FAD-binding PCMH-type domain-containing protein
Amino acid sequence: MLHRLQSILMSLSLPSLWSQTSTLPTSVSLFNSSPSLHGSLDALNKTLGGRLLQGHPLAFPCAHGPETDECKVVQKGYLDSLFRSTTPGGAGYVNTQWETCQTTGEGCLLDYLNPFDASPVSKDKGGCGMGSVSEYYIDVRTQQDAQAAFRFGKELKASGMPIVIKNTGHDYKGRSSAPGSLALWTHNLKNLTFNPTFRAEGCPPGNSGKTYTAVTMGAGVQWIEAYDFAETHNITLVGGSDNAVGSAGGWLQGGGHGFLSNALGLGVDRALQFKVVTPKGEYLTANACQNRDLFFALRGGGGGTFGLVLESTVLASPRVTIQAALVKLPSPSPSRLWGTMASQAVTWANEGWGGLSASDIAIYVNPRLDKEQATKSMEPLFQLAGDGVITQMLEFPSYAQFFKWFASNNVAASGVPLALSSLLVPSSALVNPESREKVVAALAKASDNTPRILVHSSAPVFFRPDPNEPTSVTERWRDSILHITIVSAWNWNSTKEEKLDAYQRVSLSRKLVEDAIGPSVRAAYLNEADVYQENHEEVFWGSNYPGLLKIKKKYDPEHLLDCWHCVGWTEESQRFKCYL
Ligand SMILES: Cc1cc2nc3c(=O)[nH]c(=O)nc-3n(C[C@H](O)[C@H](O)[C@H](O)COP(=O)(O)OP(=O)(O)OC[C@H]3O[C@@H](n4cnc5c(N)ncnc54)[C@H](O)[C@@H]3O)c2cc1C
Ligand SMILES: *[C@@H]1O[C@H](CO)[C@@H](O)[C@H](O)[C@H]1NC(C)=O
Ligand SMILES: *[C@@H]1O[C@H](CO)[C@@H](O)[C@H](O)[C@H]1NC(C)=O
Ligand SMILES: *[C@@H]1O[C@H](CO)[C@@H](O)[C@H](O)[C@H]1NC(C)=O
Ligand SMILES: *[C@@H]1O[C@H](CO)[C@@H](O)[C@H](O)[C@H]1NC(C)=O
């Protein structure tokens, strides 16, 4: 393999990392031996002034032996999503199957139960393979970087090297990695700007043009940074429930829900402007006054599809006092907790509550009620009090301060492979007690088959969107009350069959709940959806799909940006060869 790499790359110098070891990829040939690929990469590297970099898997340093400092750093950070998202080239992915090739088993994973054991990547265990980690990457700093990549994109694609956009690597569906790819790594675009009188570019000046209190975020900004920024500027930003998810990338472009989205809207509802490099190489501003079609597509059409967003501007709201209610049961009690939660879901949503619950914990926040009102409204939840039950009613001076408290107690799994499935529950399934009981029973049954279910009260029920500024998420977000995610995981060394079983379990659990909901139109949140979602076009985008497809064809006619179950994807593309 080393020989092959050298002969293909010829004049491209190999980093020392690659020549030090004999544990190079063995099972998959990531390159065809096309000389045109070498030529394109060389030319791209020249255009970039030598800034084309070679990627390698996260745990690669441990293949040299566990004693190296580089390996120790990886082992220490292995389960930390912030560490993973910061590693050069974005070698780390939060859900580790996307670092591997699931069809061949090739990869470079440590045992997440004990990352301090380096033996899984030792030579006698087969060492490290590239898996789905990008072969090359560009540390994107300017529009010109993205333009250079897209200029060579068609040639690279023809030689078997697809382009992916990689931000934090949180994607549950593997849309930010691909075997043998070139990654546009957006992590270092960290600019944050506060503008109390933001006017979208090209919108009329004077009194007829609206201004907003807004924040412009570079593509690499992550929620922990954005929330700190909000705190500094005494404002509220609506974001996700994980420190390290990106604020301006995939989260936003696919919808973006969180604790405050019931009261203040989805991420897309609050998007005011995007600066984008399209696959045709144009640098465009998309907002309500120019490139409206692209603006619409980026407000829910999904990341990695229409172009590389360099920065996103979103609405900032005034700082709000947050009432937070917490109930923690001593052991899982799905029927009891979700029974209460489902019976109150519509009322709570209309009062402005947002939150989430697992089978043993529920956390809700409200930016509208005072402490007395909030306590009264949450009485049904607090009635669950009893032996070993923890109940708390807390007040925070800002959402950022609530989040700090929340994130210090609740950290999502990272460095673990997992399968996820999502569905939206319409209010019609919850207002009628009979159908509600069916949904709760199905959830309880589903939690027997799948280790973790999260019920998110994050559909924008209280919030009403501006009808003149349409978003492209499924319209079902607007008449849904709950968003449910179902999770299953497997071991670092599981077989293909065991992985498939986990994917099938989450699908089956989802179908149990869907059956309980009855024959309403199916909908799911595309960023947390089932990798094998049936009829995904309608389920993710509803009636917006045909329009989105037209926009995809207009801005990316050569399919330089394709991703799994994305608008206009081409299933037969070689970039998907590692999906089971
Ligand atoms: C632990 C965890 C917690 C989560 N919590 C929430 C939550 O509370 N709410 C919620 O809504 N979702 C949540 N998600 C899902 C999250 O929205 C998705 O994982 C999303 O894809 C992450 O986007 P990213 O840019 O951070 O990640 P990446 O994996 O880097 O990118 C995701 C997708 O967006 C594309 N993309 C990224 N940046 C750009 C860009 N600048 N321009 C164009 N395309 C881009 C990529 O190509 C890829 O297709 C969570 C996920 C995890 C793993
Ligand atoms: C790109 O060019 C620079 C400078 O010539 C070189 O150091 C670097 O190794 C090249 N990149 C790759 C991936 O070979
Ligand atoms: C970052 O923001 C400042 C304004 O706050 C702007 O002058 C600068 O050009 C921005 N940099 C990038 C790389 O976008
Ligand atoms: C912060 O914002 C709140 C809400 O708008 C306002 O009441 C308060 O005076 C602000 N505080 C500071 C220090 O500006
Ligand atoms: C997988 O790894 C675990 C340690 O986490 C080990 O106990 C088990 O034997 C391994 N399974 C196989 C098939 O190698």
